[in-house]
Amino acid sequence: MSTTIAQHWDAKYLISFLYYFLADSDFVVNQEEETVVKRNIHELLVNVFFSSPEEKENIITEVQTVSKQLDEQQKMDLIEQLSARVDIPWNVYEYVVNELNEIAKADNKVSVEEHALLYYIRLKLNRDYPNRSKK
Q: Chain-centre distance of CA 73, in angstroms?
């Protein structure tokens, strides 16, 4: 399958995809990770992007369907494609990185695959954020 993705895939789709991909990157999604992913996607879509329940369910369904159709390299290509065209503001970038770290640590260990994918995601999503606030 080609990694070309529909034009309507925006930050909501990209970030939801990242959450699922990270949880599955070590090929084991245990109950703790599944719980954290579901909670984090709900918080992201409802509390950050203000998605309706219907939109949330549509995004989750589409992201899971696409994810199951792609191999690991195609998933990496998808991240590269989407991160090049989807603009994520600094505050959302920080939020997503924290949520991804929580997903990776949900089972009390961060696998080599999760660590590598976290690095790749931060590398692809990170922009030159000149106006970000310094903490």
A: 16
